[in-house]
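User: Design a sequence. Structure:
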């Protein structure tokens, strides 16, 4: 139990959510990467100001999800900037490190990499969406073990 604040983005059949330990924990960003054979496309949103954007990066999937990604980031202001980050295993979770020095926690759910960034108060959950049902995996910032949860729609 407990109270959590969160923000999510849907891509395909997956919902990625960043959640914090309460209403005044600080700003976070959630990323929902659809990982393909040659790269990834992400939708992202920030709790700081409600900005949303996308990111398109290249990566050779033959190396697995780990490695360096490079491409472009389009922000809520419409401007496109270069982007690069590295994904490294951290137990069953992943540490994601951007070229600007920011870091996040990620988890792989099928072909989707869900990432939360913004500080140690930012955690991530990835739900697979099916009619009337959510099947989720979650990781806490700095954590190495994944948790799981599921929920059914109440009518």
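Assistant: Done.
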């Amino acid at each position: 139990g407990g109270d959590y604040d969160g923000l999510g983005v849907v891509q395909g059949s997956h919902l990625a959510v960043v959640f914090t330990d309460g209403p005044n924990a600080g700003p976070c960003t959630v990323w929902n990467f659809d990982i393909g054979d040659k790269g990834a496309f992400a939708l992202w949103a920030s709790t700081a100001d409600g900005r949303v954007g996308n990111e398109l990066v290249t990566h050779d999937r033959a190396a697995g999800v780990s490695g360096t990604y490079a491409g472009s980031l389009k922000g809520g202001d419409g401007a496109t900037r270069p982007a690069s980050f590295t994904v490294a295993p951290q137990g069953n979770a992943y540490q994601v490190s951007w070229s600007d020095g920011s870091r996040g926690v990620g988890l792989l759910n099928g072909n989707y990499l869900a990432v939360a960034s913004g500080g140690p108060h930012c955690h991530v959950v990835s739900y697979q969406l099916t009619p009337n049902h959510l099947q989720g995996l979650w990781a806490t910032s700095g954590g190495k073990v994944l948790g799981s949860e599921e929920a059914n729609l109440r009518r």
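The chain has a mean pLDDT of 88. DSSP finds no helices and 13 strands in the chain.
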